[in-house]
Design goal:
Layout: H1 2-12, E1 16-18, E2 27-33, H2 40-51, E3 56-60, H3 69-74, E4 77-80, H4 88-97, E5 102-106, H5 121-129, E6 133-139, E7 144-147, H6 157-169, H7 177-183
Parallel strand pairs: 1-7, 2-5, 2-6, 3-4, 3-5
Antiparallel strand pairs: 6-7
Helix pairs in contact: 1-2, 4-5, 6-7
GO molecular function: acyltransferase activity
Organism: Flectobacillus roseus
Protein name: 1-acyl-sn-glycerol-3-phosphate acyltransferase
Length: about 190
């Protein structure tokens, strides 16, 4: 029932989806960019409903505190403690290795502020769990959520991050400095 409501609101707001996560894909990391506004969350809920897959998400633990924490959890969220190094990458890899079907969305920018580089955990989770990354771009000027075909990380980290930056550079409305850095080979 909630998905029908999210789909209706997504379409009423004028958004559309271009691309799809293949129905046969059982596991993936869904990397969503940009993370620029609180509006990303409802747009993401609408896109997830249109995609029609159960996709959980990782969010900063502060979101999961009262009074609205219950809502973020009910909508598929898992809190993440970003204040310390807690080996989250390895923990998420183990979760993927123990399940037959799991899709987790996250914002590799890690914050709504402009960043110089992406956090790389999403990449190393995909590599460690041998699962693909699905790149999802929120194009605000065109009100389109673009979903790229899944790709598996290779042994060439620099080339992979350049490919990620190239894809996201085509999404309008992203003026993020990390894209320029990655395209110039300054990915680490």
């Amino acid at each position: 029932m909630l998905n029908k409501i999210f789909i209706m609101l997504f379409k009423l707001a004028g958004w559309k989806l271009e691309g799809q996560i293949p129905a046969s894909l059982k596991k993936s990391i869904v990397a969503v960019v940009p993370h620029a506004s609180w509006v990303d969350f409802p747009v993401g809920l609408g896109a997830r409903a249109v995609i029609g897959k159960k996709i959980g998400y990782l969010g900063k633990e502060e979101l999961f505190k009262p009074p609205f924490g219950w809502l973020f959890k009910a909508l598929g969220g898992t809190p993440v403690d970003r204040s310390r190094n807690n080996n989250l990458v390895e923990a998420v890899i183990q979760v993927f290795n123990k399940t037959t079907e799991l899709h987790i969305a996250l914002a590799p920018e890690g914050t709504r502020k402009n960043v110089e580089k992406l956090k790389s955990g999403f990449y190393y989770v995909a590599k460690g769990a041998n699962i693909p990354i699905v790149l999802v771009g929120f194009d605000y000027p065109r009100k389109t959520v673009f979903v790229r075909e899944p790709f598996y990380p290779t042994d060439n980290v620099e080339a992979d991050f350049k490919e990620i930056a190239t894809y996201f550079s085509q999404i309008q409305g992203i003026q993020k400095s990390w894209i320029k850095n990655y395209l110039e080979g300054k990915y680490l």
